[in-house]
Amino acid sequence: MDKRNIQHPADKYHNGEFPMQKQDAPGLQSRMDPVPDCGETSYTGHERLKGRRALITGGDSGIGRAVAVAFAREGAEVAINYLDEEQPDADSLAGLLKAEGSELTMLPGDLRDVETCRRIVKEAYKRLGGLDILVLNAGVQQAAADIAEITPERVRRTFEVNVYAPLFMAQAAVPLLPPGASVIITASAEYYTPNKLLLDYAASKSAVTAFGVALSKYLLDKGVRVNSVCPGPTWTPLEVSGGNPDEDIPRHGADTPLERAAQPAEMAGIYVFLASSEASYITGEIYGITGGLSGK
């Protein structure tokens, strides 16, 4: 056995304290210390998605970026959606993939607007020449130590991005997705173990998880599979731009059984699998990648 390819999972990535840091939302991964590992130097593709066409929301950084890197290296044509403020991260991803021979289709837009949701899906379909993988990954998260801090405007924004956008993007995509297509929703470990500081976020992620199961049933006759991935604490811009209390940043992820946060690169493999024909008998499922939290 080549021991270079196997090691204790607690030691595979950064497992010490993170430096104190804070950004305004939505945050840029290029400004984080350490910069999240999205598989840029480690993910190797094997043509498992050759000829496929994928749209990934929130694809500029974090989990979405790791999925975009993996999909492109597996042979898929990839489009990403992101906010205008996230353009630097999106540009760096486009540059990385272009150097490898892949053209990234870039579709900025704020998914709080229903018409933007519909436009992004239609543009992806047109520019990619079809659409058979839809990754509904974009999300917002803000921690609140006091329930009084949670305003109607904040709840509305959380649900517009985390619940409404996946629903309306799926609605726009349904007529375009062929049999064999795959929809993958990024939910959260908040579905398993909701945090008292994330009341509105936990509610939204529980809602979108249920939506994914319901959508899988709705699309069964069409031959489109729908599954959800529930990441645990992961080192992304979401955490340093209000998703975690400032004082909790250094020990982000330390309360998991593996005692560290995940890196986005550790999420990519399950998305590749669920998008591929290898997962042809899998629909309506919920996959926890939580460092052991879902089994606590």
UniProtKB/TrEMBL annotation:
Record flagged with keyword Oxidoreductase: yes
Q: Which GO terms describe its molecular function?
A: oxidoreductase activity, acting on CH-OH group of donors
Matching entries from InterPro entries are given as: NAD(P)-bd_dom_sf (IPR036291), Sc_DH/Rdtase_CS (IPR020904), SDR_fam (IPR002347)
Under the heading Gene3D superfamilies, the entry gives:
NAD(P)-binding Rossmann-like Domain
The source's superkingdom equals: Bacteria
Bias kind Basic and acidic residues: ranges: 1-15
Q: Where is this region: Disordered?
A: 1-33
- Per the record's keyword annotation, is Oxidoreductase included, yes or no? yes
The alphabetized UniProt keywords are: Oxidoreductase
The similarity comment for this entry is: Belongs to the short-chain dehydrogenases/reductases (SDR) family.
Its name, as the record gives it, is Uncharacterized oxidoreductase YghA
Species of origin reads: Alistipes finegoldii
Organism taxonomic ancestry: Bacteria, Pseudomonadati, Bacteroidota, Bacteroidia, Bacteroidales
Gene it is expressed from: yhxD_1
